[in-house]
Amino acid sequence: MTFIAGVEGDSLAAGALLIQVDDSQIQAQRRAALAQIANAEAALRNAQVQYSREIWSPRSNTPNAMPGMGMPNMFDQFFTRGFSNMMGRSDTGLERYADWYAQGAGVQQAQGALMQATAQLEQLNARLRDAQLAAPFDGTIVKKIVEVGDTVQPGQALLQFAHTTYLRIQADVPVRLVAGLEKGMLLPARLDAGGIEVKARVAQIYPMADSTRHTVTVKFDLPKGVPGGAGMYAEVQIPDATEPSREIPVLPERAVVWRGSLPNVFILHEGRPSLRVIRVGSSLGGDFVSVLSGVTAGDQVIVDPPPGLVSGLR
Asked: Taking the model in full, what pTM does it have?
């Protein structure tokens, strides 16, 4: 590893160089491939010249090592070759065809060698592109897995790069709850960062369920600018379409008394305050909150209980 763009938290624009590994060996192989291409091109040009010469000046017409216009060559052309063909000892036409075919095969072989060298160069160029990685989008370095100087292998994870401008919740939803979800539906969600409550939009519902956990992966888009980051915890309230609808009690937020991390309310029971632990739902706006358990319709709840109020005292 020769280069890493930054550390965790650094933001990079799309196209910026993220990481690069040592490519000196690939560069040397690429130079050798360029030399092979040059040799293959020269061999192809020579084969084409030999092929053209065979068409316009066949070697079968000049069998001697030193062709020319002398009397021996003329005698051979007019008498010796002719008598040899008549006697069946040779076939000038067949010899010319064989020479022409051999030169044509030489051209094809030279073309194949050039194509092979070009393919090797393309393969090395692909390896050079893989030796460095550019940011595919505007994002932030989330995690560095290697450092400069480390030895890496093909397929090894080097760095985690995420698009953090728009956050998304990924949840494994039980199969019975997925039936009540539709793409584009808005659902209440609570973020672990500050406990803020927002509306999450159903962005994607996976078509297959996990056969072992009996859940379906669902992704929810969060509004832009919400606090938090990748890997943080969030809760999404999903309606259960299989359960019959029922009324949920609603209380003023001023009636909820927090004891540590547990929400409580004071209920008047036989004229005395009684402290009950409740389970709160989502905020409904207007300083009201829904209550999932702990109180029922008709209970008298004390709003704005005094700080010193104790359960059981009149």
From this structure: 0.48
